[in-house]
Amino acid sequence: xxxxxxxKIPWEWPLPGATSAEREANNLSEAERALxxxxxxxxxxxxxxxxxTEWPSNGAPPPGAEAPLENMEAKxxxxxxxxxxxxxxxxxxxxIGEAYVSPQIEAALGFSQSEWLEDPVRWYSxxxxxDKMRWSVEAAEMFVxxxxxxxxxxxxxxxxxxxxxxxxxKMIRREDGRPWFIxxxxxxxxxxxxxxxxILEISAQEQRRIAQDLHDGLxxxxxxxxxxxxVLEEKLCDxxxxxxxxxxxxxxxxxxxxxxxxxxxxxxxxxxxxxxxLMSALKKWASEVQELFHIRCRFHCERAVHIHDVxxxxxxxxxxxxxxxxxxxxxxxxxxxxxxxxxxGTGTLSIQDDGVGFTTDPAKRPGMGLSIMNYxxxxxxxxxxxxxxxxHGIAVTCMFPLRNxx
Length: 406
Known about the structure:
By secondary structure, this protein is of the alpha+beta class. It contains 11 helices and 10 strands. It has 3 domains: 4-191, PAS domain (Beta-Lactamase); 192-269; 273-406, Histidine kinase-like ATPase, C-terminal domain (Heat Shock Protein 90, 2-Layer Sandwich). The chain has helices at residues 20-45, 66-80, 104-109, 113-118, 122-126, 129-145, 190-238, 243-268, 277-293, 310-329, 368-379, and strands spanning 86-91, 100-101, 149-156, 162-173, 179-188, 296-300, 335-343, 346-353, 383-388, 394-401. Strands 2-1-5-4-3 form a 5-stranded antiparallel sheet, with helices on both faces.
């Protein structure tokens, strides 16, 4: 008989009548909840979980232990094989033979269960080269700190296809604090990633088109009006007519409208299509923030970081822009530092402020800005981390692969 919590798992996926986004969100939340319950089943039903008992030195289980363990394993497998995701478990103090991966691995990546498990480093070898360093850093953080791993990576299928997987993993510890096993789940989010990328690209294209129209259309039209108004002003001045002063005001207002149009066009398309475009845009943005808000805002880049992909450069610029705006608006910051650097094929964009830091009000959840920053980081194959800085304030760090964009 299955455990009582099994009734909570949505066995009929996808939900009829739901949109693809709704189905995916439902799958993700429900499968995550099921994963938590599955781990509890493993811990609660293990005959050694509560007593800290170890297997005898001869390798044989204590009398009567085999049947409960086999029963628990059968229940576990029956549950995980219903989840539309790849579930995995790996002991940290045993051999690879004690690992487990659900049969969905074959449909997802083209490897059978036995093929996947027979090679202890197959998972790492199938991670996209541009995501390996980030995976290593985040996995190491999970092992050291015990924090759950939650991130998206590109994975190479057997046939060469590149798939996006959202990975959720937890490290389970023994009662004495020693690491016991890793329990996790991977969701194929390739379709969602493509949709997000398409939406952001369409949005970027529209912004570039509007910026071009403002510059070439409205901007040029206003320039013509300013020229004609100036000519009219000079004619009225030559005749010593009092209307000359009014004409001068018109010229001034039209020139101001031209400046506003240029600033608006620049805001819609801030990064030039050249290798140094991101560095120039960030330097200009820092200067504008300093002048507009009367605070310190600096851009540091010790060695030039050239990014020739304007889409990637624009996403990074928008991340920095959102982080700076949040630091001023919510953090009340007076000193902000934007840094850009590259090392070993990985770029790092960081924004550090001296503001009030994270709010202590649990009712205030992260807003849409943070979600969009995460989306932008994911789109370029990177990761975003928002955490308290070493001294005070908040540090926003985006690590991204640089190999294909230099």
